[in-house]
Design goal:
Layout lengths: L1 H35 L2 E7 L16 E7 L18 E2 L14 E2 L16 E7 L14 E9 L19 E21 L12 E12 L1 H13 L1 E6 L20
Antiparallel strand pairs: 1-2, 3-4, 5-8, 6-7, 6-9, 7-8
Length: 255
């Protein structure tokens, strides 16, 4: 009886030791795996924070997490010490890494805008509602830009343009994809119908100032399109297929 009891105790101790060794091994494996991925300590949001929040108020809303270096974007913050006096430019969501670009001097904070990506510049265009998705574009959207032209005379035979444009006065072409909208300034919608009631679908009121971020070369082409033709912006989605369509003319419209 005593022998069986001692044997049972020994077996229990061995089982406990085995579990402890397994846990230690797994933890060690996790650390070894992280070391192989060059782990970096970064600040990650614990809860939603609205735009305009002071950096000093973020301390209790962030936590330090160790992530593989390959998963950390350039500019991700590791501490808030040197961000004193700044405010958030956009709403921050749980699980989001805190980027330095999301914090600016309060004098630079403009509600309804998004930061300009590094290396780009802003340009503003006046567009009518039908050219900006019925006035539904907002800061942060990405758009595809199209330009339409109507010349006084047919295109000269020696003009340096795509072959499908030659001989036509009117044509539309795609300028570029992935243009970031940084701000939209527009008059309040008009909800009144012709009967004078306040019920109905809100309609955009007049033209809007649409500001976009792009390179100087792309800005030059877009400004030319606005100056000598007309621009149309198409809002992209996460599943938008980005093709390379030919320039559209009457000759190719129904092909």
């Amino acid at each position: 009886m005593k022998t069986r009891l001692l044997g049972g105790i020994a077996a229990l101790l061995l089982a406990i030791v085995g579990v402890v060794l397994l846990v230690v091994y797994v933890q060690g494996a996790d650390k070894r795996a992280q070391q192989g991925l060059e782990p970096v300590n970064v600040l990650v949001m614990k809860e939603r924070v609205p735009a305009g929040t002071k950096a000093e108020d973020l301390q209790s809303k962030v936590q330090v997490e160790s992530l593989p270096k390959s998963a950390v974007p350039t500019g991700t913050l590791q501490a808030l010490g040197d961000q004193k006096g700044k405010v958030t430019t956009v709403d921050l969501q749980p699980g989001e890494q805190l980027l330095a670009a999301r914090l600016v001097d309060p004098r630079e904070f403009r509600p309804g805008t998004v930061p300009v990506p590094e290396g780009l510049e802003e340009a503003t265009f006046v567009l009518t509602p039908e050219r900006i998705l019925g006035g539904r574009l907002v800061a942060g959207d990405k758009v595809t830009v199209f330009a339409s032209f109507k010349a006084d005379d047919a295109m000269p035979a020696d003009a340096n343009v795509p072959a499908e444009v030659k001989g036509w006065k009117e044509f539309t072409g795609l300028l570029y994809h992935d243009i970031l909208v940084t701000a939209v300034q527009q008059a309040a919608p008009d909800t009144k119908q012709s009967g004078g009631t306040d019920k109905g679908v809100a309609l955009p009121n007049g033209s809007a100032y649409v500001t976009v971020a792009l390179s100087d070369a792309n800005a030059s082409r877009m400004i030319f399109g606005a100056e000598f033709g007309t621009l149309w912006l198409a809002k992209q989605t996460d599943t938008t297929v980005k093709g390379d369509p030919p320039v559209t003319t009457f000759g190719g419209l129904f092909q």
